Amino acid sequence: MKIAIVGATGEVGRMMITCMQELSLNIDVLDLYASAKSEGEVLYYLDRPIHVRELTNSSLTKHYNYVLFAAGAGVAHSFAPLAAEHSDLVIDNSSAFRMDEDIALVVPQINGHLLQGYHGIVSNPNCSTIQMLLPLAVLDKAYDLKKVVASTYQAVSGSGHKGILTLQKQREGSTEKGIYPEIIDLNVIPQIGVFMDNGYSSEEEKMLRESRKILGKDSLMLSATTVRVPVVYGHSISVYAEFSSDISLPEATALLQKAEAIKLHENSYITPRAIGNSNESHVCRLRYGVDKHSLSFWNVAHNIRIGAAKNAISIMEKHRAFINSGSQNV
Predict the structure, then answer these.
(1) Which long-range contacts (CB under 8 A, 24 or more apart) does 82-85 make?
(2) 171 lies in a domain?
(3) Which residues belong to the active site?
(4) pLDDT tens digit string along 87-119?
(5) Between 149 and which of 155, 194, 240, 293 could a Cys-Cys bridge form, CB atoms 3.0 to 4.6 Å apart?
């Protein structure tokens, strides 16, 4: 298998390598690309040293089975279409193509069937959207999801390594705001992304639009408030959801207990500090909302793992599974 990672030296790129190592994937070629300032840096895959190369126009004109983009939307717009011309599948972690109607937006446990026979570019959803939709998709199948109100508590690593450095410097006494509109240390900031004309931020708008696309529910009503908090890793979400059908709380609990990539905590809760290297979406404090047509729960997940890198690797693994089963040709 031949794989390339674009943006390999960033938070998500490094985690992609870690997630592949945890699966001990047999990779014949692993090429790592980044900006000119990272050229020559050495990263490791299963104790194999790999020198990072500068990303250029000719970098992605050779054939790879999978090209994983862990760079920004600008880089993706410039290079992903080129990579798609020469390789089997491009998996992009940025927001560049998520709402393109011709490009699949995939959480494998929810709509992985879209990868069967798929070629070109596939998009990795927003981190908060992934972790929230994993349990909501399970409940939607049983009770028909209609409305969601979500408040997020998002870690600084969601802003990349610069977010972590900003918090660390402020913890050490710096009064510079860094990459945030306000001091983040010992504070919370109810703004992630730019504000839209409707009063919502771009991050909040992503959660609405991406949730509708992934679930295939254009009528879904969703209101999100996204907040940056002084946590390094691990996004938390307070979720309130309304459904068409009456809900059996024991049944809903059982459905979540057996669902893939979900860890249900009964009679307890989990915090971002406790999730460690988990690749699961953690659900706790599951309870009725205002009536038996609604549920409320607390949702925590590692934003760089299942919210980004691990979902990308899962897309790759699901696509490979279709190939290995003979259900598509590449």
Answers:
(1) 82/57, 83/4, 83/6, 84/119, 84/120, 84/121
(2) yes
(3) 127, 235
(4) 999 999 999 999 999 999 999 999 999 999 999
(5) 240
